[in-house]
Amino acid sequence: MIEDLLILLKHDLTGTVRIRNVKGKRSEQRSAWRRYSRYFAAIAVAIVILLGILFMSDLLGWEFFQAVLIDNIEFGSTIFNFIIIMSFMGSIAISVTTVGNSSRMEYLMTMPITLKTLFLEKTIVIIFYNAMLYLVIGTPIIIGFALASGSSIALFSIPIFIIMLLANVTLGVSLGGLIGLAIARFLAGRRRLKQVGWFLGTTVAILFSTFYYFSLFTSEDGFGQIFSVIFDFARMLGLSSDFSPGGAMNAVSLRLIVGLPIHMTDILLAILFLIIPAFFIYANAHFSEAAHYSGWLASGSKRSSKEDIRIAHTTWNPSTLPLIKMSTTTSVSMWYNTASVRREGRVLANYLVGPLRMVLFLFLFLLTPGGDIAGFAPFIIISAMIPFAVSYGVYFAGYELVYEGKNLMNLQLAPASLSDYVKGKVFSAVPFTLIAITIASVLVIIVEPTLWIYIPAVMISSIFLTLASGGIASYSAATGGDFKAERNISRQRGSAVQMPIRSMWSMARAFLLPNILGFAGLGSMLAVGIFIGPIYTYLAVPLFALICIQIMRYYTGKTGRKLQTIEATEYM
Amino acid sequence: MIEAIALTRKFSEFIAVDRLSFQVRPGEIYGLLGPNGSGKTTTMRMLLGLLKPTMGTARINGFDVLENTVEAKRFIGFVPEEAVLPDRLTGWEYINYVGDIWRVPRGSERDEEIDELLTLLDIKDASDDLIETYSKGMARKIGIVAALIHTPKVLILDEVQAGIDPRGAATIKEILIGLRDRGTTILMSTHVLEIAERMCDRIGIIDKGKMIAEGTMAELRLKAKGQQSLEDIFLDLTGGPDMQRIAAFLGEDS
Description:
The complex is a heterodimer of chains A (572) and B (254).
Chain A: H1 2-16, H2 32-60, H3 62-71, H4 73-89, H5 94-100, H6 106-109, H7 115-149, H8 157-186, H9 191-217, H10 228-237, H11 245-258, H12 264-294, H13 328-343, H14 345-367, H15 377-402, H16 407-413, H17 418-428, H18 430-447, H19 455-480, H20 504-531, H21 534-565
Helix pairs in contact in A: 1-7, 2-7, 4-8, 4-9, 4-11, 5-12, 7-8, 7-11, 7-12, 8-9, 8-11, 8-12, 9-14, 11-12, 13-17, 14-15, 15-17, 15-18, 15-19, 15-20, 17-19, 17-21, 18-19, 19-20, 19-21, 20-21
Chain B: E1 2-11, E2 14-24, E3 29-33, H1 40-47, E4 55-60, E5 63-64, H2 69-73, E6 76-79, H3 91-101, H4 108-120, H5 136-148, E7 154-158, H6 166-181, E8 185-189, H7 193-199, E9 202-207, E10 210-215, H8 217-223, H9 230-238, H10 243-253
Parallel strand pairs in B: 3-8, 3-9, 6-7, 7-8
Antiparallel strand pairs in B: 1-2, 1-4, 4-5, 9-10
Helix pairs in contact in B: 3-5
């Protein structure tokens, strides 16, 4: 099994991290910059971090750093737990997606290797992607501190950190994968329930892990009470850190650097958190194999109902609604986009609840001081809507445009405006933004009823923000999207390991620009309302809406023209 | 060598393969024919251990493909209908990948054999290119080389000649006949009835998941009331085109 695993990994990584150009004449010869830049960037980041720490340590003295680290030693535990939870949140649908798309691996599945080995290898590749960023940033920090400390024992913290980091990411990914498989198992064959189940399952998993992280972050305050049993248990065991994988990692790595005592219980806990991920990753492979054979993931279409019921599929055409005018291409595109996302419960859940991860972590730090900023809570909830409005635009217009893949050929051949088609994708995000904003509005009114006056303005602005975001994201997709993403296990729909938009610049533009627009726009409108009068907020809304519409028109127009010129080799 | 015993596969209420039984003997080419959606690919997937039969057993060289999956797969070379190969590898890398998994010893002997197969199928010049640049036929040819590189005792081919140029198709035909003569067991599905007629020692025709006729060409002719060509036999057993509807369609259109 190990030998098979190594062969699979070797060849998988050969294709993924290819540095040299291939010899063939048909293949694109990439410039040295394109081939090496990401590796150089990673090395440069690592070197800058390392030298920065060593320089600061020389400047301020190791004693200063040591004192700061000892005073805030528990913060290491928080950071390490954060890594696990991020890996976990991004991996809930990962195993289900891998198994569900196993037909793309038929060539591997017919080889004399067990499917368990195959799924294990795919999970390891996902772990590799998840751990990469943390390794690039974390390893030089640990090396820097270990070198600066001047203690030879501290050098042991480097391999310990790497091993524990990989183990913790493995824990997050495997646990996420297992939860996804469990949802698939219990809701097998029930399409509607599956959609609801994925939505609820993903939300509960994200909320639970965030609160757990929050409880670690705030120690004994606030949500910490929920998990007080765990902390009491940790203290009872005599652990110098909390009873968590991040805590165990912190105890055997950072404490080693700063020379704090490490208890035997901490070492045993660290060993336990090495064994648990190994068990989980194996369980993940085992249940993935079971899922493949069992047909838990079979789509509704493969499971005919007992009665012969003909379902009439009609397209939803909003053009019939008053004041809404759109071309047939746009309304068909809207319907198609919504239908294709809705069909896969895990994708819909990922799209709808996905922004929650960003929002929770973004505002976790703001909410942490508790009572001190309680007055800002409603504004925090209002601004939490911005990532939702932006992300829905990015997912429904940007990602879904990339996942058109081979269908681009049909679109290019169709006698229809591709700009109109893209607009349909952008519009399809609006109903979802509306639902999310309505929920948030209710929360705001509960927390601070006097703010009701701003709610309609925020709702309208968020909808227009989604339009702008969708427009920008569609152009990012057209210029930097990997139109073969659906064929790539780590990029395909619902995977969340790698994004379907490959270019870093395009991704940055897709997320940063609309977020800046949203925070600046909504922030200014609310500020104007609070300091001058609510009427001025409403006067600003049409201006904001106009800006958003112009942005959408500008970018969807450019996207349409760009899509017409994309060569077939990019997506076929 | 290949045994399908009462193989059944249900997708909820839909029965894709219904108690299908047949045997392919060593050194025999067996053609599995049937209309689209008749259950050919599902049957092959069960024989390969990719799908679990709802009922029945599949055996390769005596090994139950579900109980002894890896052992059974060691004997098999498979060319799928749609070759989904790893886009980011070159043809040469992919074939070596397969060679490594099957533990074909690395070295000049293996390289020469790969070279020989690539040259035979006119794909050597493109073997250093990424698979993502290949046409359907080229990818299919690489898939065939990969299926042959470990000299399998059993070959399962799903529409092997689809999308391949006439010269390539003729080469594949000769290679398959040569392999059969050396004792390789071959199960192939095809819609090109002429190929089946010329190449297959025995033919099984399935429709709606059930075996409706099986035997040599001579035996099939007897069953199909003396029809001479395989195409006539096939249409006789599975139903021919609906001429009335075709005429109506053409009439409306013109």
